[in-house]
Amino acid sequence: MLTVEELFGIDDLLSTEEREIRDTVAAFGARRLRPHIAEWFEAGTFPARELAPELGALGLLGMHLDGYGCAGMSATSYGLACQELEAVDSGVRSMVSVQGSLAMTAIHLFGSEEQKQHWLPEMAAGRVIGCFGLTEPDFGSNPGGMRTRAERDGGDWVLNGSKMWITNGSVADVAVIWARADDRIRGFLVPADTPGFRAREMGRKLSLRASITAELDLDDVRLPADALLPESAGLSAPLACLSEARFGIVFGALGAARDCLRATIEYARTREVFDKSLASYQLTQAKLADMALELGKGQLLALRVARLKDRHEVRPEQISAGKLNSTREAIAIARECRTILGANGITLDYPVLRHANNLESVLTYEGTAEVHQLVLGRALTDANAFR
To answer: Which positions fall inside the Acyl-CoA dehydrogenase/oxidase C-terminal domain (predicted)?
Structure first.
């Protein structure tokens, strides 16, 4: 019986080291995460504080960054790790992605040497958790319209505003907050114990339940001058971090789809309908074949994007293409798998509807599907349709 990876010869495209990293993360997921993930999802909780040091010990936090305690792994290795984490649950990959691709990357790219030395080793080890405050209640797809402001007051900065849908927000030790300062968007490091800073966990979610999501309020938050990320200037700075996070999603969403497909194939092989296995029906096999085809095509595209990124040749539009394809196909696979499982598919005894619910968020965050369609449309036509 072939796996999708065998059908498309995926392992032949990976180095020995890349396969070992993938398998190590998969083993960690099987041992430490899978036994509890349905319970966490049902309860709407995630033990980020407990798991962060374990993820750090595996070298997964900021693993694609160089120096400062980071593993310095390739983009391909990071992508494969994201695939295995999201095969468990999108919330797990989101926690790692926000820590490494957003908060740590912002410090790595735009911070001073002192800021890097102070924060990055502790964040890589999982002893310090970070979050990334860009999205606001009224500004998601249009972050350039943000209302959060940073104003100078003597040698200090004073921040006022709010952020929403912030992963890790209520457990973070430090928040990377983006604010409008002197008509330019700048990044600031805000320790969670700073007076005037408050994080409130958001509940009543039907998606990403095994993930911590918060709303951040900044009320006259006073920061010293050295809280500013000195190299951050303009919207291109946070967008560069988002591009890193989107790359992880290119692989991650496919991990969720693969988990759905594997669970569904096993179910179909053992479930009897009219005195024979569900897998032996033509309609079932047609569904499985179509899903395997789209999953394999998505994995090949993800690997192509990763190889370009490892050569420092990837374009933002190519990451957009990967994110759009992976999320769109992954959610379609999850939904189709649910039809094969029938009523069993709506329970937490199987992963498919949990993945499908999570993918509703993954389809939207780090740029909605429509935003990425317009990114590609602009690249193909040289005409801007955003406004």
So the answer is: 234-380
Decide: residue 35, CB within 10 A, 0-12 exposed, 13-18 middle, 19+ buried: exposed
Given a cut of 80, whether residue 183 has pLDDT beyond it is no
215 is annotated as an active-site residue: no
- pLDDT class of 48 with cuts at 50, 70, 90: very high
The catalytic position among 122, 266, 366, 370 is: 366
Contacts of residue 224, defined as CB under 8 A and 6 or more positions apart, other chains included, come to: 155, 156, 157
pLDDT in tens, 94-114: 999 999 999 999 999 999 999
Euclidean distance between CA atoms 231 and 229, whole angstroms: 6
Instruction: Specify the 3-state DSSP secondary structure of 102.
Output: helix
Q: Calculate mean pLDDT across residues 151-157.
A: 96
Could you report the per-residue pLDDT of 211-259, keeping only the tens digit for each?
Answer: 999 999 999 999 999 999 999 999 999 999 999 999 999 999 999 999 9
Domain 4-124: CATH superfamily is: Acyl-CoA dehydrogenase/oxidase, N-terminal domain (1.10.540.10)
Residues of the chain with CATH 1.10.540.10: 4-124
Q: What is the architecture, at CATH level 2, of domain 236-381?
A: Up-down Bundle (1.20)
Indicate the pairing of strand 213-223 with strand 272-273.
unpaired
pLDDT at 70: 97
CA–CA gap between residue 13 and residue 300 (Å, rounded) = 9
CA–CA distances in Å: residue 46 to residues 36, 50, 58, 200: 10, 9, 19, 15
Residues of the chain with CATH 1.20.140.10: 236-381
Question: What percent of the chain has pLDDT above 70?
Answer: 100
Q: Where in the chain is the domain with CATH 2.40.110.10?
A: 130-227
The fold of the 130-227 domain, in CATH, is Butyryl-CoA Dehydrogenase, subunit A; domain 2 (2.40.110)
Rounded to two decimals, the pTM is 0.96
